[in-house]
Records
---
Amino acid sequence: MEQSWRWFGPEDAVRLAEIRQAGARGIVTALHHIPYGVTWSEAEIARRRTAIAGDGTLGLRWNVVESLPVAEAVKQNSGDLAPIFANYRQSLRNLAAQGIRTICYNFMPVLDWTRTTLAAKLAGGGTALRFEAVQYAAFDCYILARKGAEADHDPALLARAKAWADAASESDKDRLLATIMAGLPGAYERYDVPGLRRVLDLYRDITREGLRENLARFLREVVPTAAECGMTLAIHPDDPPRPLFGLPRICSSAEDLEFITAAVDHTANGITLCTGSLGAGPGNDLPAIARRFAARIHFLHLRNVAKEADGSFQEAEHLGGDTDMVAVIDAMLAEQARRKAAGIADWRLPMRPDHGHELIDDAARKTHPGYPLIGRLRGLAELRGVMTALAAVKGYPL
């Protein structure tokens, strides 16, 4: 596998030389300063690519875009979308011209990954990201005060959520809002409570089936261009894989992945296998999903979560938690071997260690939530060990 690392650009607190020290060679990044729906020019893409490859002693390359964002208007199927689709297609062409051919994107309405705590305490002093079901319900029902929200939560959980909201200070509530907003990448818009209500209202008439069709339309518009350019699109699963704030979620299960890959049945229409996002869903068997969709998986986010009975979950060690990471990696190494045997030129799957624990002096760096240096370095080292051991035992090419 091509060991890679998410980098948020020149302002990232983690430097390219440190990424190389961690053992990664592929850089996963995006042009976060360009607004949704606007074309990424070849000049802007070349500037970022050159920044990554500029020091030849590091041997780094921009191998995956994460992400080329989908405008909210596309998710809502609202207004004249022809210019937005045209811009997306041109961005794909411009990326291909610069040699970048794997594109991660998501179709989550309004919010990307959502947590309620960014620094849950671990033994020894580290911290982890956490989704606390009680705090989420408290925010949904008693801070956001979304109409009809109570019907979406278990009554026993609601009682605990009401108690939390009644005891919470204004600073507690502000912190929770800021945490929920933290899943949006660096430069994107954050919302206050009234602003979040307004943007959620734009989806009030969009059902799960409607959002699915909006995604299918997007795929019909852009997958042919990706195929022409020799590119692969890789949708990122919902995080967490459940409806949030009344918003439908359509990339949360094997059944959803089946719908998406069938919507445009071409290898260019593929999947980012995020073991943490899908792993937070109680019904998701990650090794089985990896085997079932292996030929359509184009990018790997490897991390783990520990789930709790009330719907809460916490980011675990990469080889801990509820997902059998060894079995997932085994399935993906077998798929790599199949691609190599079939003569596919780009047979190596790009992978990156996803969210890590903040360890040792990570907190002092003020990195993006979930993206510390030492915690991810540890994760990559552990995952590399699994890959190396499986390759040695089973003869997989790396």
---
Amino acid sequence: MATAPTSNVSEESPISPDSSLAARLASVRRDRELSLRGFAERLGEEAAYDVSYSSVRDYEQEGSSPPARYVEAVSEAFGVDPVWLLRGEEAGGWRAGLGSLPHVQREFEELVNWLRDRMPAEEHAELVRRGWEQFTARSETDHPVRDVVIRSWRRSVAASVDPGKDCPEDRLNESELARRRSKNADLVTRTEQHLDWLELLLQDHEYTVGLTDSDGYMLFTRATSDELLERSVVRPGHDWSEESMGTSGPGLALAEEKPVILIGAEHYARALHDVTCVGCPVLGADGQLRGVLSLAMPVRSTKPLALALACYTTWTISETMQR
């Protein structure tokens, strides 16, 4: 797994180590001595991706951002490492780092494998839903619900969380939110820097992503669109700890101090039963948990790869925090 990125870009390519995605895309075309139109035609022939030559020009001149599928098509058609396209000279180190995944990453891989087995299974989702209904009625269930979820449900009951609540009730005022952002300025800055490439990969998906501090308060949020962000219950300043919202991606990751995935009715609040969420702890230089990056998607369109990318992004953030 710890292999250097492969690329057909020649050593004479005039791009610098800190070049942009646009410059790397342009270098791929120039190295093949293709015109804009010829490059577009090759993408159609080799990767079944239809694009106009004017769009190719816009992507290379940063007139607009290329969709994730375009980057994938360039990789497929010309044998270029997609991670190199996205991260440039950082690609080798990023890939090499994946060869020595920390313990939490191995745990997450097990969760992704578990998810792949059950994500399409309506029968499993129905059993969990029945388990939730039984548990919220009498604080126990005989349905097959994961132990980590049952533990969290029990803590939610102990904290007197209402399973019928729509969103966190506790929200920081602007001055307190600003104070917490300032206290966690390094965490916020490093996270925002790494979310740019994650958004490029996930721009064809519907999702919201947020960062909480170590107490569970949401420091900032992003989404596929402004409209989705407006509809989302994930807002800056809200308390997403288990004590406030019960079992959720951020709250459970904080409580268990490891990456977690929650699907539909595994969430304690009924309002989150149409959502799949991953929560991934961010570790600081001292190895202590500094916050949680969480990504939520509709259950109907959940992609395991998207959840895995969110976790790898979190691991990368943790790596930079520990330097």
